[in-house]
């Protein structure tokens, strides 16, 4: 196909095109795997449905649609802002995970991009957060509200940027969490939140001047 630079094994394609299965979940799974998980299940279903659930035709339709018109955005992981290496958190504790990311490409990100949970441990109910369209080389912090598991141990989850059309792009970014009884991270974040809230309150002038709890 014109504009394509895709190395798909013809025998493999023939094998899957002759599956003869009517199981749509199987076809979606195989389509997603052949694309290297660049498209989410809903996007796979769109192209399969458009081609009457013919896997080979759906692959062709996908590359006809995506390759000439859409340049895949670029994203690089910069650093962990919270939950860095060596930090731990108590079980069943709310916390905020923040990553620093960069648009490492030459074009502004399209509207409607988001950061999505893609595998491993999810740490709560949030599985997607919207991200603003970054300018080329712009750096931004992205945060997700999470909750640690109830049992101590090491946990990890993976997240990726995704376009509004369901195309994943950029580095896989990780949450690697050490859950320990007596872990300090959750307490540190809670104290930081309390300090921010306290500092936004009007100062009360009293017998002890600026000291909120007096002097001994």
TrEMBL record:
Gene Ontology CC: nucleus; phagophore assembly site
Keyword line: Cytoplasm, Immunity, Innate immunity, Nucleus
Gene3D superfamilies linked: DNA helicase RuvA subunit, C-terminal domain, Immunoglobulins
Single GO MF annotation: ubiquitin binding
One record GO biological process: innate immune response
Domain Nbr1 FW residues, every copy: 82-179
Subcellular location(s) per record: Cytoplasm; Nucleus
InterPro entries per UniProt: C6orf106_UBA-like (IPR039517), Ig-like_fold (IPR013783), Nbr1_FW (IPR032350), UBA-like_sf (IPR009060)
Pfam family, one: N_BRCA1_IG
Role summary: Negative regulator of innate antiviral response. Blocks IRF3-dependent cytokine production such as IFNA, IFNB and TNF. Interacts with IRF3 and inhibits IRF3 recruitment to type I IFN promoter sequences while also reducing nuclear levels of the coactivators EP300 and CREBBP.
Subunit structure, interactors included: Interacts with IRF3; the interaction inhibits IRF3 binding to its DNA consensus sequence.
Protein name: Protein ILRUN
């Amino acid at each position: 196909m014109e504009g394509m630079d895709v190395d798909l094994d013809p025998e493999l394609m023939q094998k899957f095109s002759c599956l003869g299965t009517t199981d749509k979940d199987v076809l979606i799974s195989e389509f997603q795997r052949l694309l290297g998980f660049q498209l989410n299940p809903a996007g796979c279903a769109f192209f399969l449905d458009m081609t009457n659930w013919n896997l080979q035709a759906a692959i062709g339709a996908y590359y006809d649609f995506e390759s000439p018109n859409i340049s895949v955005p670029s994203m690089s992981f910069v650093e962990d802002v919270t939950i860095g290496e060596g930090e731990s958190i108590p079980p069943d504790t709310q916390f905020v995970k923040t990553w620093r990311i960069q648009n490492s490409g030459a074009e502004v990100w399209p509207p409607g991009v988001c950061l999505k949970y893609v595998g491993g441990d999810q740490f709560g109910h949030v599985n997607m957060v919207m991200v603003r369209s970054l300018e080329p080389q712009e750096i931004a912090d992205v945060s997700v509200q999470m909750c640690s598991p109830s049992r101590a141990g090491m946990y990890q989850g993976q997240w990726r940027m995704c376009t509004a059309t369901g195309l994943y792009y950029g580095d896989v970014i990780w949450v690697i969490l050490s859950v320990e009884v007596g872990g300090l991270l959750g307490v540190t974040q809670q104290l930081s939140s309390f300090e921010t809230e306290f500092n936004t309150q009007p100062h009360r002038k009293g017998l002890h001047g600026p000291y909120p709890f007096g002097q001994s």
